[in-house]
Specification:
ABC transporter involved in vitamin B12 uptake, BtuC, two-stranded antiparallel ribbon
């Protein structure tokens, strides 16, 4: 791969790492599946894209985050107040968002604003390496660092600790007079706020976005989480969050390399699913290899 291709892959990895960091709250902290993601991603994309078209890129980012959080809150309310299973609640919200997202996009399948101001406009052309502009990548690194720092801070506050405790043992937490329903609603809201933020940055990075781009975002984010945990581990929250960011970059570079080698775009979902399966199996493969080495050493010792 050329250097410009690698830089582009890393930049996309840094954008989608925000998506994976959001899903980490639902899947790892709360231990609840959230299928709202595919819908709330397009919500963030639509809001950010439409406002960027009107020359309000920063307002687009803010409103996208608010829109995503509202989608997550709806899922949380369906799950906690109407007692709908988390998976079904996410599916219902995601289904409703299909229509809402089209309304936001004025019934158009794509949103485009080439040549207009984005959050990257001020930084473009500031830093170069071997003639390649890396300004966008540096901005994305700063955004990821801020998000990781804020997540670590939040997860160590009283609300954050209650959120973590709810995921670990909901019955015990409820007996401690903590409102577990509220914790779930907060968790779903934060998850989808970060998902929408990722989409809002993504559409301004490309200066265009499609209504169908949200399909498969759940698998993409899970792949990043699992790959990162398989490569680095998840012993602490900081280590886990860093693993997710690096996992997202590795996953995106793997996709980029595969496309460079001639992988048809129609095989993307299959390739993503295979990566997830391999990443899940990798820890078991390590265990099998370690057991094999122990048996070999034992036989040699005899």
């Amino acid at each position: 791969m050329s250097l410009i291709t690698i830089v582009g892959g890393i930049e996309l990895g840094l954008i989608f790492s925000i998506l994976s960091l959001g899903l980490y709250i639902a899947f790892r902290i709360l231990d609840l599946p959230d299928l709202t993601v595919d819908g709330s991603f397009v919500t963030g994309l639509a809001i950010s894209g439409v406002l960027a078209q009107q020359n309000h890129p920063y307002l687009g980012i803010l409103m996208a985050v608010i829109g995503g959080s509202l989608a997550g809150i709806v899922t949380g309310l369906l799950h906690t107040k109407l007692k709908i299973q988390a998976i079904l609640a996410g599916i219902l919200t995601m289904t409703a968002l299909y229509s809402i997202n089209l309304i936001i996009m004025d019934e158009k399948p794509t949103v485009m604003f080439f040549g207009q101001k984005t959050i990257f406009s001020f930084f473009t052309g500031m830093f170069f390496v071997n003639g390649i502009d890396i300004s966008k990548g540096l901005l994305l690194i700063i955004i990821n660092i801020l998000i990781v720092a804020l997540m670590i801070y939040f997860l160590n506050t009283k609300i954050g600790l209650s959120l973590r405790a709810t995921g670990d043992n909901e019955v015990m937490v409820r007996s401690s007079s903590i409102n577990t329903d509220m914790m779930k609603i907060i968790g779903f809201g934060l998850t989808n706020a970060l998902v929408a933020l990722s989409a809002a940055i993504y559409v301004q990075y490309n200066q265009q976005g499609s209504y169908t781009v949200g399909n498969g975002m759940l698998v993409l984010s899970l792949a990043s989480i699992i790959i990162g945990e398989a490569l680095i581990g998840n012993k602490t929250i900081l280590r886990n969050l860093i693993a997710i960011v690096l996992g997202s970059i590795v996953y995106r570079l793997a996709l980029t390399y595969s496309f460079q080698m001639g992988l048809p775009s129609s095989y993307l979902k299959l390739f993503s699913a295979l990566i997830v399966v391999f990443a899940i199996f990798l820890p078991q493969l390590k265990s099998i290899y370690q057991n094999y080495r122990k048996r070999v050493n034992h036989v040699r010792g005899q």
